[in-house]
Amino acid sequence: MECTNLTSITIPDSVTSIETNAFYKCANLPSITIPDSVTSIGASAFSNCTKLASVTLPNNANFTSIPTQAFSSCGLTSITIPDNVTSIGASAFTNCTKLASVTLPTNANFTSISNSAFEGTGIASVTIPASVTSIEKSAFNPCNGLKSVTFQGTIASDGFESNAFIGDLRAKFYATDSTNGTPGTYTENAFVWTKQP
Q1: Where are the domains of the chain?
Q2: Per-residue exposure over 82-95, b if at least 16 CB sit within 10 Å of its own CB, e if not
Q3: Three-state SS sequence of 130-152
Q4: 176: which DSSP letter?
């Protein structure tokens, strides 16, 4: 259902589920707050909400997944994903070109960043939590504004796709430890990554 005339909405605390395509193409919706009562969000729930600049997710979310294309092609500028979340679906934030800042969950069960999760976003820097064991293809590629990546832990080499990031970041991550990689902060210049001291 298209809802191009919708310019504001309040989701009641009684709502427990936001269904697939619930707000698809609500192109003039500028912000939304998801209440604590929500236990699940469907695929493409907010996809193509091109003016959706602000999404507030509950700190103690009762849902554990950001599903496939949930916020793809939105106008988000930043997002903090609740610590309860354990998975980010494929293309969840793809083509959110204004998305400059993302904070990933820090719980031990957050282990994977799915295919194209942040592809085509404007993220400038990102911290990969120590719990992450898998970064799938195009997870952050292309993100032409991404200049700094901090790995808080190691990742087995078979869990880090070669094109997950633009440039040679994967190669530099495994340059001194070909099995698990080397945690730390890496910065990019002209598609070449350098590990910082």
Answers
A1: 1-10+18-166
A2: bbbbbbbbbbbbbb
A3: CCCCEECCCCECCCCCCCEEEEC
A4: S
Q: Which amino acid is at 74?
A: C
> Taking the CB of residue 12, how many other CB atoms lie within 10 A of it?
7
Sign of dihedral through CA atoms 58, 62, 64, 69?
negative
pLDDT tens per residue across span 162-197: 999 999 999 999 999 999 999 999 999 999 999 999
Instruction: Kindly report whether the peptide bond that precedes residue 142 is cis, defined as omega within 30 degrees of 0.
Output: yes
Residue 122, both tokens: 């404007």
Whether 6 contacts 27, CB under 8 Å: no
Classify domain 1-10+18-166 by CATH number. 3.80.10.10
CA 75, chain centre distance (Å): 14
Question: CA 19, 24, 30 angle in degrees (round to 5)?
Answer: 110
Taking the C-alpha atoms of residue 65 and residue 79, their distance in angstroms, rounded to an integer, is: 15
Phi, psi of 170 (to 5 degrees): -60, -45
From 93, 90, 86, select the one nearest 111 (Cα to Cα).
86
User: Model's pTM, two decimal places?
Assistant: 0.93
Q: Percentage helix, strand, coil, to 5, in the chain?
A: 5, 25, 75
pLDDT digits (tens, 9 = 90+) for 109-153: 999 999 999 999 999 999 999 999 999 999 999 999 999 999 999
